[in-house]
Amino acid sequence: MKTLYFTNVFRGTFSIPTSKSYSNRALILRALHPQVSISELSTAADTQILQQALTTTDQHINIGHAGTAMRFATAYFANALGKEIELGGSERMNNRPIKVLVNALRELGAEIQYLNKEGYPPIRIKGQNLEGGHLTIDASVSSQYITALMLLGTAVPKGITLHLTGKIVSQPYLIMSRHLIEVLGGHVNTTTNTIHVQPLCINTAKNVTVPGDWSSAAYAFAHVSAGREAQLFIPNLSHPEDQADGAAVALFNHLGVASTPEGNGYLLCHKPLGVLPQEIDCTDFPDLVPALAAAVAFHGKSLHLNGLETLRIKETDRIAAIAAELANFGIATRATRSTLTVKAGVTHAPKRAIKTYDDHRMAMAFSIFAHRYPISIENPMVVEKSFPEFWQSLNNLLPIN
């Protein structure tokens, strides 16, 4: 349990980790192509878990809560001739679907067996020499399935061509995957509903430098939004267009945050609230939803968020979790399978400690209410999944006299 109460008049430097999403893709590419090296690898627990999974000699690999690691490692080990492993995770992980990816890999010749419930981890994988080829895959469930296959496509003789059906979710993460492959000299050809990844041949050493994480930076935006006067500098942060959650710049501009590039990072300053849209489609940046919903509620505004299909199968059912924690502050919501409406209302002090549901983003998003009320947060170290230094970054905030 962690108890928090912050001033709402503050300044400081808000240090963020490097990108977990970029790091995890780089780890798979390094495992597939040993000529690749990585600088500034993320310290996030998810990244450390994936790194260990790719290098361990154990046959039983526990991924814990790391969903990205589960999907990426499944595709990697399917092509690891001579290795036979069992891959599972936490109770929640073993109830997160993986059937779409497994079916696709089986079409390529992978040998994967479910050890408990059909369509879910744990799984047994007997590595093969996959050839690659054409696949049709539902793009509406998780972009991580598609990325896992894109990365694999760089290491199989025929490459991989993906024909995408359904609504494409989290498309900027697919763009990130393509960009990283191309940085290493690979070729990815895309049309509206097709991705073709050619085999990648690397003859000389290549280095990948991981940039700062916009997903983590979003929580600095949320805290500046909650401040009455606030000014934060985020170092080591590149252009927002480079990552999906760079959308925080435009979204939080409506919620009282002016942001400008400065030196190697971004300077955030509190400003009057703008006119908030009535509805926001979050299909491309679902990870921003907890911080966005918390900030909207903090200011007593209403907002309809759609494009949230993937949030039901995250570390927790994120739509239900957000609704429950907003209710803890007196804010009403309305939810469907893929939408969440935050209703305007006046918040009150929480009736209980904030639950985190083993979800790092819940802990970080709802910490902004500590600028208004003393709050307690259960299992605060859940932030280690993506942002181990989060609480220290908040502790560095200095009151403005």
Q: Any overview of this molecule?
A:
The protein has helices spanning 20-32, 45-55, 67-78, 99-107, 143-153, 171-183, 214-226, 248-253, 289-298, 318-328, 360-366, 390-395, and strands at 2-4, 9-13, 36-39, 60-62, 84-88, 111-114, 123-126, 133-138, 160-165, 188-190, 194-197, 206-209, 229-234, 257-262, 265-270, 279-281, 303-306, 333-335, 339-342, 375-377, 398-399. The protein is built from 12 helices and 21 strands. α1 (20-32) runs parallel beside α2, α2 packs parallel to α3 and α5 (143-153) runs parallel beside α6. The longest helix has 13 residues, at 20-32. The two termini are 30 Å apart. With 401 residues, it is α/β, with parallel strands linked by helices. The mean pLDDT is 96. The strands form 6 sheets. Strands 14-15-13-2-21 form a 5-stranded mixed beta sheet. The radius of gyration is 21 Å and the shape is globular. The chain folds into 2 domains: 2-17 and 212-399, UDP-n-acetylglucosamine1-carboxyvinyl-transferase, Chain (Alpha-beta prism); 20-209, Enolpyruvate transferase domain (UDP-n-acetylglucosamine1-carboxyvinyl-transferase, Chain, Alpha-beta prism), CATH 3.65.10.
